[in-house]
Amino acid sequence: MTMYFNNEDTCKQAIIETRWGVGDNQDVVCPYCGEHHCVTRKDGRFRCNHCKRNFSCKVGTIFEDSNLSLVKWFIAMYLISSHKKGISSCQLARDIKVTQTTAWHMLHKVRVLLAQDDAEGFSGEVECDEVYIGGREKWKHQSMRTPHTQGRSTKTKTPVFGMMERSEIENEDGEFDYISIMFEMKNKNDTTATKHKNEDFLKKLDEDRRKKGCEYAVLVSLLEPDNETYNTGIIDVSHKYEKMYVIRPQFFIPIITLLVQAAKKSLEYKRQLAIAQSKEVDVTNFESKLNEFRNLFGNNVKNAHDRFRDAIAAIDKSIADLQKVKDNLLKSDDHLRLANDKVEGLTIRKLTHTPPR
Ligand SMILES: [Zn+2]
Fold this sequence. Notes:
Blueprint: H1 8-20, E1 39-40, E2 46-47, E3 54-55, H2 70-82, H3 89-96, H4 100-114, E4 126-133, E5 158-165, E6 181-186, H5 202-212, E7 216-221, H6 228-231, E8 235-236, E9 244-247, H7 252-278, H8 283-352
Parallel strand pairs: 6-7, 7-9
Antiparallel strand pairs: 1-2, 2-3, 4-5, 8-9
Helix pairs in contact: 2-4, 3-4
This protein binds zinc ion.
Zinc ion binds at residues 30, 32-33, 35, 48, 50-51, 53.
């Protein structure tokens, strides 16, 4: 499982939408006095008209009082919630590049929040690494360089996190197969004069995905906020680019879960196919089995044919017998009719008979 994402604002928006709803249905509630319909300030924070206090979306959440980036928090929550058997603070510290003490505090907060339910998530080994995307300073023209930006600087490069779930299933080359997803986050600040719709970013995402060798590509987008299609759920755009989806931030975990499950199923099919293919076909056995089958089938056909003939003969005999019965019935009917006529004639004659005077 490989994922890439980098955007703090998208995380904030996800918190806001999760806490207080989306679009017109959004109702920001004051974390201090509980007043509804707090107003959004220009700086992205909120103001309560009742108690006159300002607050950010982090107030009243586990992210409050933390200087860590929300991206790290989100990855941490994801890692913690998806490790069925739990994750150690050492592991978490390595995974998201924080100190063990910080990781321990994060673990504690998230565990309290999650109460560790039985949600389906990751299993196996999860790898996480941090990379930086952007040109190397030394390849740039002198005038284009930014001072003090060698190596891991975020001034000219975009930090990206990658996570990977290793599967226990090996492929033909003895390597581990795994699912890889590329996430690209877009919010209103990411638009340009020519690119402002979700569709405008798909081509680039597809290119990036291919470069990274990611199987799936997901655009996590806040663009086109009034577009009903994008607001309804996970939008499959595979008719344009294969294995690509556009989602709102709140569908982040659902899509990962879906894709991981799908990948696991397909891996299982691949494994079964490999087992079937690896079984050598025993030609001698196969031929004798085929002959055996043919003989048995031939016998069955012969038996069936004999039984059929017998049945036809039995039916013919029955028809002949029934014909006899029918003839007899018709004869007796004639007799009855004759007898009846005699009776009737007798009666009429009797009735019309003028007795002798
Ligand atoms: Zn208030």
